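Quick start: what a row looks like.
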Amino acid sequence: MPTNPDGALTGKAALITGAARRVGAAIVRKLHAAGANVVLHYRSSAEASEALARELNETRPNSVVLVGADLLDLSQLQTLPAVATSNFGSLDILVNNASTFYPTPMSDITEIDWDNLMGTNLKAPLFLSQAASSALRISNGLIVNIADIHGMRPLSRHPVYSIAKAGVIMLTMSLARELGPSIRVNAVAPGPVMWPEDGMDKELQAKIVDRTALKRPGSADDVARAVLFFATEAPYVTGQILAVDGGRSIGGW
């Protein structure tokens, strides 16, 4: 039985990239709790992926499967939608969550930085959406891209990342036009919902939070709720970017 009594996604299958930890894991938990079966993609976090799958399969047997793949290798992308259809009979939701984030001061940008940040954040979502489109058309499915508010306003010392996330926003709107009417495409643009894993100065954290309208940071679960909204409560919404940022994007920067 689904852990969500409403079971809004019972019988649906979701593929979530970069799903082992942080925001990705929160999205997995949220969709799974609503009844979805989940294909959990990871690149290097095999141990965390296995632990999460084991936990969720204990609550609902055979409801989560794992797939390891390098999203920068386009030859591997075709296999991901097939994992969903072969295990669960369909693919209903694709969440392009996997991301790479690190600073690239203008004087230090290399071609490797460009290829990595643009590849993970923009190239992979485009080509995975292409690979998944046939299955999603059959199910009248949904693509949710995880963008960033810094795709709308650049983040200092992160020009390549900001450019890539701006591309994700336009990708979302473009695919909504290209893939309609059978596939909806939307994006969630988080603000300060999780601090970088390599740390951030406490004073800077406080400064960022103070620039939100709600005067507090968000959580990975806030992003997951937005994804669930698109999956369960928004059948007439496509091509839209939902900022989950506590009002940062309407305030001072």
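That is the whole record. Residues 1-5 have pLDDT under 50 and may be disordered. The helical segments are 22-33, 46-59, 74-77, 79-88, 111-139, 159-179, 202-210, 220-232.
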